[in-house]
Amino acid sequence: AEVVVSPPYVFLPVAKSLLRSDIKVAAQNCWVRKGGAFTGEISAEMLVNLDIPWVVLGHSERRALLNESNEFVGDKVEYALSQGLKVIACIGETLEQRESGSTMAVVAAQTKAIADKIKSWDNVVLAYEPVWAIGTGKVASPAQAQEVHAELRKWLAENVSAEVAQTTRIIYGGSVNGGNCKELAGQADVDGFLVGGASLKVSEIDYQYHQYIGMCSLQI
Questions:
Q1: Rg (CA), the chain
Q2: DSSP secondary structure string, the chain?
Q3: Axis crossing angle, helix 103-115 with helix 70-82, rounded to the nearest 10
């Protein structure tokens, strides 16, 4: 099992210094290219210099609030990988998109924008986060999560390769906590979790880590 903690930028060095060596640290974002006057942005090169191995890209908040397009996220994933970072790439649909029946079209388009830019999936983890379930207390049922994860794996097999489909980890995020992670982890195509608010509660971390870390790749 692999555990990755992703604090805000200002706490990256502190978190890295306090955690055990087997628990890795991820940034919550990084810039899309090298050099230039991009005041306030953090480059992939900066993360490498800090020995931060992971970065989260394409989170729904950045897509919605900062208007990051699928193509822009794909570019960011490509550049981060080129600098040696490992990427947790977030995808997911809104409530309106789910209710209109376009969930798979949305997540497939988001995944395609990444697949079009990269040659290797060795250092990519896909994080399926239905936007309607993030921080709302609403959780995709195990069946709903499994359905999307299975379809994503099928999409990878048909559009990238059978090997990539089999080996790429697809984790679930969206109001995951100690009370629902066991059943979600039991689904065949759910390889772990991207945990948000519950990761700030000591009781939740203790419950998930000690009970289920052997069953899944817990991504925080």
A1: 16
A2: --EEE---GGGHHHHHHHS-TTEEEEES---SSSSS--TT---HHHHHHTT--EEEE--HHHHHHS---HHHHHHHHHHHHHTT-EEEEEE---HHHHHTT-HHHHHHHHHHHHHTT-S--TTEEEEE--GGGSSSS----HHHHHHHHHHHHHHHHHHT-HHHHHHS-EEEESS--TTTHHHHHTSTT--EEE--GGGG-HHHHHHHHHHHTTTSEEE-
A3: 40
**Beta carbons within 10 angstroms of residue 131's beta carbon:** 22
Q: What is the pTM of this model?
A: 0.90
Task: State phi, psi for 182 to the nearest 5 degrees.
Answer: -65, -45
Task: Provide the angle, in degrees to the nearest 10, between the axes of the packed helices 142-159 and 103-115.
Answer: 40
**Span 69-96, pLDDT tens digits:** 999 999 999 999 999 999 999 999 999 9
Amino acid type, 197? G
Token pair listed for 195:
């945990």
Catalytic residues: 59, 129
Matching residue, tokens 């939740």: 204
pLDDT digits (tens, 9 = 90+) for 125-174: 999 999 988 877 777 899 999 999 999 999 999 999 999 999 999 999 98
Q: Alpha carbon of 61 to those of 20, 57, 129, 155: distances in Å?
A: 29, 10, 11, 25
One-letter amino acid at 42 equals: I
- In the block, tokens 């991009």 appear at 38
